[in-house]
C-alpha cells in the first residue's frame, strides 16, 4: 500500500514533464514552421501590411586632385531637415529627476530650430501648422534643405524626436576659383554641368546604395531586419596634371595683367615640353565653382579651349620650320623684303613698321617679325605641303584633351586659298587656333620635333584601386630633330635681339620666344574689328634643353595694343615656372645668328 502511494506522485511528475515537453516541441515546430518553412509567406504578409521600408545609402562623388594629390573638388555631406508635423504639433514633454513633467509647445521648438537653420521662427512654425491644417495625420514636411554638417549636429543636439536628417551629396571646391574654368561645376541635384566634372563624369560619378528594413507601425526599425540590397559605390579620384600652387599664382598674375592693360580677358598656359602635360592654365575672368551663377554665363567655361583667335606672327615660326624641314630653303637662304609690297596675284602684304629693302635670313624675318619676308619664304613652299604640315602640328582639329566645348579652330582646305590667303596664313591670318593648339605646336619645336598629345588628366583611380583613363604618351615626329634645333636657335635670337629682349630676359637662362598680334574678327559683322587685337607671347626655356613652354594671350588690350602688353606677365610667369620646378640654369649663352644676308 505504501509502495503504490509513493509511486503516484512520480507518475504525475513524469506525466507533467511529458506534457510540458510536448508543448515545447509543439512551440518549436510552430516556430520552425513560421521562421523557416513558411518564412517567405510571412515576410510577404508583413510587406503587404506596409511594414517594409527602405533608405538610400548615399555614396560620395569622387574627388578631383592636382598633380600632388591636393584636393581641388571634394564631396561634403549636406542634410535635409524633415519633420513629423503630427508629432511636432503636440510639442515635447520631458520629465525631470523628481518625476515632474514639462511640456515645450511647438512655437518654442520652432524658434529653437530656426535659431540653427537661420530661418525665421514664424516661417518654421507655419510649415507644421500648414501641414497639420491640410492633414491632421500628416507625417512629413520639409523644414530646410542642404544644411551643413555643423547645423546638422546642432539640430541633433536639440533632441527633438520628430526631426529626421536624410543626407544629401554636396560638392565643395576648397580653393574657390583656382582652376575653376577647368574644373567646371555640378548642379544642386549633383549632376555634372561643365568642365572636367562633366567630361570625366564616368570616373567621378558614384552609385547610391539601398538598404531594406522592417519597421513597426510607429516607425521603429525592427532589430536585425536591415538588408543591404545594393551596396553604395563611391566615385573615383580624378588626378590632374595641374599644379595647384602654380595655377593659383598664374591666375593672380593674369588677372593683374588683364586689368593693367584694359584687356577683355587673358590666359597663361604652361606645358611640360617633354610630356605635353599642362601644368597650369590660368584664365581671367574666372569662375568659382562654389557659386557659378555669380559669373557671367560666357565666362563659366574655358575660353582657352573654346575661343579660337588669329595667332598672328607666332605662326611665322611654324612657317619657318615647315620650309626648313621640307627642304624648301635653309637657314642661310635670304629674301629681299621691303615694308610694303604687292606680291603674286595682286596680294598686298605690309609689315608693322616702315623700312626699305632688307636682305633677310629666316632668323632676321623672325626677329623683325616681317610679314613680307615670311611671305616670300612661304612662296618657296608648295601650298599643300604647308597645309599638311600645319595639320601635323595640330591645326584644324581639337587637342587630345577633347575638353567640353573645345574648338578645332579654322584651317581652310588648300583649294579654298586665294593668293591673299596663301600669304596671310604664313603669318597667322586667315586662320584661327586655340591656345592649346598653339602651345602644342611650340611644344613640338621644344621637344626636338616630336609632338606629344596634350593632357590635363593623369588618370582615374576607382574605389577598388583600379586605374583607368590614363592618356596616351605616344609622340609623333612632325619635323626633324635638326629642324627643331635650328628653329629653336632662331627663336632664341628673337629673345636676345628683338625689341623686347630686356623685358623678357631671365638671368642665367637661355630663352626662345615669339610674339604675335592678330586682328580680331567682329562676331556680328564677320569683318575685322577696328583697332582690336589678340596679342600673344609664347616661348620655352631653358632653350638649350627645353623643359617648359609658356604662353600669354590677351584679348583686346587697350593701354598697350602690341605684343609688348604680354611681356611683363610672360617674364614673371616663366620665372615662376623655372623657380617652382627648380630648373637648372643654362650653362652657355645664346649663339648670335645673322639677321641679314
Automatic annotation (TrEMBL):
Signal peptide annotation: none
Transmembrane segments: 12-32
Keyword Cell cycle attributed: yes
Superkingdom per UniProt: Bacteria
Residues covered by the Penicillin-binding protein transpeptidase domain: 266-574
Span list, region Disordered: 285-309
Domain Penicillin-binding protein dimerisation: 58-189
Intracellular or extracellular location(s): Membrane
Primary localization class, coarse: membrane
MF terms (GO), sorted A to Z: penicillin binding
GO cellular component, one term: plasma membrane
Record keywords: Cell cycle, Cell division, Membrane, Transmembrane, Transmembrane helix
Keyword Cell cycle: yes
GO BP of this protein: cell division; cell wall organization
Family: Belongs to the transpeptidase family.
Protein name, per record: Cell division protein FtsI
Protein's organism: Microbacterium testaceum
Amino acid at each position: 500500500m505504501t509502495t503504490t502511494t509513493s509511486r503516484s506522485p512520480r507518475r504525475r511528475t513524469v506525466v507533467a514533464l511529458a506534457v510540458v515537453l510536448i508543448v515545447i516541441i509543439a512551440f518549436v515546430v510552430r516556430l520552425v514552421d513560421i521562421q523557416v518553412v513558411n518564412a517567405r509567406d510571412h515576410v510577404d504578409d508583413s510587406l503587404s501590411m506596409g511594414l517594409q521600408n527602405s533608405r538610400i545609402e548615399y555614396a560620395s562623388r569622387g574627388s578631383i586632385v592636382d598633380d600632388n594629390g591636393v584636393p581641388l573638388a571634394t564631396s561634403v555631406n549636406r542634410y535635409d531637415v524633415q519633420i513629423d508635423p503630427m508629432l511636432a504639433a503636440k510639442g515635447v514633454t520631458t520629465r525631470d529627476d523628481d518625476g515632474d513633467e514639462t511640456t515645450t509647445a511647438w512655437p518654442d521648438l520652432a524658434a529653437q530650430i530656426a535659431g540653427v537653420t537661420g530661418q525665421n521662427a514664424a516661417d518654421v512654425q507655419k510649415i507644421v501648422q500648414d501641414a497639420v491644417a491640410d492633414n491632421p495625420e500628416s507625417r512629413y514636411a520639409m523644414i530646410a534643405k542642404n544644411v551643413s554638417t555643423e547645423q546638422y549636429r546642432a539640430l541633433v543636439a536639440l533632441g527633438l524626436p520628430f526631426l529626421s536628417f536624410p543626407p544629401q551629396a554636396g560638392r565643395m571646391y576648397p580653393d574657390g576659383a583656382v582652376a575653376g574654368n577647368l574644373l567646371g561645376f555640378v548642379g544642386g541635384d549633383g549632376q555634372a554641368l561643365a568642365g572636367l566634372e562633366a567630361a570625366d563624369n564616368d570616373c567621378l560619378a558614384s552609385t547610391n546604395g539601398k538598404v531594406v528594413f522592417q519597421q513597426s507601425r510607429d516607425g521603429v526599425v525592427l532589430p536585425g531586419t536591415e538588408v543591404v540590397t545594393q551596396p553604395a559605390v563611391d566615385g573615383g579620384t580624378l588626378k590632374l596634371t595641374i599644379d595647384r600652387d602654380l595655377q593659383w599664382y598664374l591666375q593672380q598674375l593674369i588677372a593683374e595683367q588683364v586689368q593693367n592693360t584694359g584687356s577683355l580677358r587673358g590666359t597663361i598656359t604652361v606645358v611640360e615640353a617633354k610630356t605635353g602635360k599642362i601644368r597650369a592654365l590660368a584664365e581671367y575672368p574666372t569662375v568659382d565653382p562654389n557659386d557659378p551663377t555669380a559669373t557671367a554665363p560666357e565666362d563659366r567655361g574655358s575660353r582657352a579651349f573654346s575661343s579660337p583667335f588669329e595667332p598672328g606672327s607666332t605662326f611665322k615660326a611654324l612657317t619657318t620650320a615647315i620650309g626648313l624641314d621640307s627642304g624648301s630653303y635653309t637657314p642661310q637662304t635670304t629674301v629681299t623684303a621691303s615694308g610694303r609690297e604687292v606680291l603674286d596675284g595682286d596680294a598686298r602684304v605690309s609689315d608693322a613698321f616702315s623700312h626699305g629693302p632688307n636682305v633677310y635670313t629666316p632668323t632676321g624675318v623672325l626677329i623683325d617679325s616681317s610679314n613680307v619676308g615670311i611671305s616670300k619664304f612661304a612662296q618657296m613652299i608648295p601650298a599643300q605641303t604647308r597645309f599638311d604640315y600645319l595639320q601635323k602640328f595640330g591645326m584644324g582639329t581639337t587637342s587630345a584633351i577633347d575638353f567640353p566645348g573645345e574648338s578645332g579652330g579654322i584651317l581652310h582646305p588648300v583649294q579654298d586659298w586665294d593668293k591673299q590667303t596663301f600669304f596671310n596664313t604664313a603669318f597667322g591670318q586667315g586662320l584661327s587656333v586655340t591656345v592649346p593648339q598653339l602651345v602644342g605646336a611650340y611644344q613640338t619645336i621644344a621637344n626636338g620635333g616630336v609632338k606629344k598629345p596634350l593632357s590635363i588628366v593623369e588618370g582615374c583611380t576607382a574605389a577598388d584601386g583600379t586605374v583607368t583613363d590614363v592618356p596616351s604618351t605616344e609622340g609623333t615626329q612632325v619635323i626633324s630633330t635638326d629642324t627643331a634645333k635650328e628653329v629653336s636657335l632662331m627663336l632664341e635670337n628673337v629673345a636676345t635681339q628683338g625689341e623686347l629682349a630686356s623685358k623678357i630676359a631671365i638671368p642665367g637662362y637661355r630663352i626662345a620666344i615669339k610674339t604675335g598680334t592678330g586682328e580680331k574678327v567682329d562676331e556680328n559683322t564677320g569683318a575685322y574689328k577696328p583697332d582690336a587685337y589678340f596679342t600673344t607671347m609664347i616661348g620655352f626655356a631653358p632653350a638649350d634643353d627645353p623643359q617648359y613652354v609658356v604662353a600669354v594671350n590677351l584679348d583686346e588690350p587697350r593701354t598697350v595694343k602690341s605684343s609688348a602688353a604680354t611681356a611683363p606677365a610672360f617674364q614673371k610667369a616663366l620665372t615662376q615656372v623655372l623657380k617652382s620646378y627648380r630648373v637648372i640654369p643654362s650653362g652657355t649663352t645664346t649663339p648670335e645668328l645673322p639677321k641679314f644676308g
